[in-house]
Amino acid sequence: MLLIATLFVLVDVAPAIGQYSWQSQMRDTIRATVEGHDSGGTWSVMVVNLDTGEPVVDYRGQATMIPASTVKILTSAAALELLGPDFRYETVLTTTGPVEGGRVNGDLVLHGAGDPSLGQHRATSSIFTNWAQGLSRIGIEQVSGQVIGDDSLFDAPGIAPGWSWDDIPYGYAAQSSALSYYGNVVRITLDALQGGSDVRIRWLPNNTSYVTVGHQLEQGQRGQQLWRRFERDLGQNTIHVRGTIPAGRSTQFRVSIDNPTLFSAYVFSEALDQTGITVRDGATTVRLLDAPPAPYDTLASVYSPPLSELVKTVNQESDNLYAEQLLHTLGAMAHGDSLSVTSSRERGLRLVRGLIHRAGGAPERTRLVDGSGLSRYNLVSAEVLVQVLAYMHGHPDSEVRRAFFRSLPVGGRDGTLQFRFQRAAAARGNVRAKTGTFSNNSALAGYVTSFEGTPFAFAVLANNHVGSTRPLRTVQDQIVNILAQYPR
Q: From CA 206, how far away is CA 224, in angstroms rounded?
């Protein structure tokens, strides 16, 4: 009897010893990987076993860190849960007066609902031209008033607190607005045609005169190094481009515009003009009027793709405008105590903090000021990111759960992870994660499964490191590969 009892004890204890051994070894290996990279900054790592809910790695996991674009995990998760994967934006075109004798007796009003994809997605890439041609086909030749952009659903167009002034001209720092078109940027192309002497400059949408582009460009010798720089005057839409473009080469870049609501109305008025419809009083916005326009009739409307598709752009492409639009949309749809503040941004942030609370986190130990992570004022711990990832992994709504999971890039395959986890990396095709990058800061948070099937949620954040962020990404990838190689 004593021998049998001893055998049962050994059988019961052996798995625990094995589990302790590999988890302890994994913690030691990850700690050594992190501490082996010394560039003066701070690391924070949290890993949770999603089968058991147990933290298997906690290296300063509660420390508040600058999360960069991993904030998009919080924004997209809150949007999917509160709006639903099937949510769509509707942009509406109305008149303020009747259409009589080929004339709109009043204004045309573009009512923005916050759609970040308007004018960018294949379904709406030519929406203003299509609408203008449709109005022409029904005999409209003149608008007696203005084209008015209505962005009243959100705060006034602008950027979030803590965005660097250095970022403002770049396309990734486009202003948010309830009425947004073409990503609130112009896309400039410079061509040095073979056999010519000049550099051709053009931009989309449609060489709009909403922007003024001045340039000092010269064509270089074939094979010469290409260089170009641009600036946009603060608060204006005057762009200055300089550079040398070698013969036979071209380059393309995006520049943000100021006041995207007016931009949308202006580009639509240009589309009307190009179709032969005269707009007597030009373009303006509701914020420049003494009173909001009263809709008389609806002429057209268009829906965005479903939210399940939009969040893929948020997380796979790390699109800041999409994330900011989702945050303001949450604020516009707010309810309960979120209505105690008037700002659509602040209402949206309160709802994101509510998600953190439902996930078991401490929102009072988190600072959020935007939805994209472009602000350096954001402070989030690796623990909070993992708590939200774990919450979404087990979300009771399977459609929400699936849409969130599929929105994250796959290592070695697509999105911002396309060129990471290459060749024989253990996590290639396995890890799904959101990246985050600032100068001197880098983050990675998401899901990976061990080779025996244990699912992990992880977050690896690095702040204030001197030098390139490439070594920081290498450390992150090493940690994820370690997780992918360990047994159950």
A: 30
CA distance 302 to 370: 27
Angle subtended at Cα 142 by Cα 136 and Cα 148, rounded to the nearest 5 degrees = 100
Mean pLDDT of the chain, nearest integer: 93
At 42 the three-state DSSP class reads strand
**pLDDT given for residue 123 in this prediction:** 81
Quickly state the pLDDT bin for 335 (edges 50, 70, 90): confident
| CA–CA dist 41, 28 (Å, integer) | 20
Whole-number Å distance between alpha carbons of 57 and 339: 39
Q: How confident is the model at residue 72 (pLDDT cuts 50, 70, 90)?
A: very high
The reported pLDDT for the residue numbered 186 is 98
Gap between the Cα atoms of 202 and 221, Å rounded: 21
Q: At CB < 8 A and 24+ separation, what contacts does 53-62 make? A: 53/390, 56/23, 56/26, 56/27, 56/456, 57/26, 57/27, 57/30, 57/458, 58/383, 59/30, 59/31, 59/34, 60/382, 61/381, 61/382, 61/383, 61/386, 61/459, 62/365, 62/381, 62/383
User: Rounded CA gap, 458 and 359, in Å?
Assistant: 15
Burial code of 234-254, b = ≥16 C-beta within 10 A, e = fewer? eeebebebebbbbbebebebb
Question: Buried b / exposed e across 83-120, counting CB within 10 Å, b at 16+?
Answer: bbbebbbebbbbbbbebeeebbbbbbbbbbbbbbbbbb
Q: What is the pLDDT of residues 198-215, one digit of tens each?
A: 899 999 999 999 999 999
Tokens of 42: 């701070």
Per-residue model confidence as pLDDT tens digits over 3-14 = 334 333 333 444
Average pLDDT, integer, range 363-374 = 97
3 state SS of 187 = strand
Q: What is the DSSP string of 62-86?
A: TSEE--GGGHHHHHHHHHHHHH-TT
Q: Give the 3-state secondary structure of residue 255.
A: strand
